[in-house]
Protein: 3D domain-containing protein
Organism: Hungatella hominis
Amino acid sequence: MTEFRKAERRRRVQRRMMKLVTVMSTVAAVLTAGYSFVSEGALEPKEILVPPLVITVSEEETPVGSGPPPAAMKEPAQSTSEAAAIPAPPTYLGEFEITGYCSCDICCGKKDIKLTKMETVPKSGYTIAVDPQVIPLGSYLEIEGVTYRAEDIGQAIKDRSLDIFFSSHEEAVEFGRQKKDVYLK
Ligand SMILES: [Zn+2]
């Protein structure tokens, strides 16, 4: 009887040991899996070695759940909407009477240096003369999809009239006098 009980006890201990070994190896496998997963994520695997699963879970779940990440996602969204709002739609100024001019003596009078009122070198299809009382110098205007810069003034340019700069007097004359819609950019 006693021999039988001893043997029975030994078997029980063995079974417990086997269970323990199984659990231990499972834990080891999980830890190894956790570690290898983390090290693939390249997030300082040495520090994560001790409690791998806890850190893996917390680092993986923070971006998904609530907390700082949604706020971090909101900020770029706001800045992109602000960036998109920067090029505001052009303001319609009305219909202007537009003429052409160039840097010749006829258009600008006899001068040694023929710069614009803003002291820039006038550019064809870009420089425009305005009435600075109506349009501040330096403003950008849009006429039929083309962007001009109000860099110059002219004696005859008053109220709703504009003078577009051309590189030759012929082109300026050919442009003549036209009425066009003007937008302030
Ligand atoms: Zn001219």
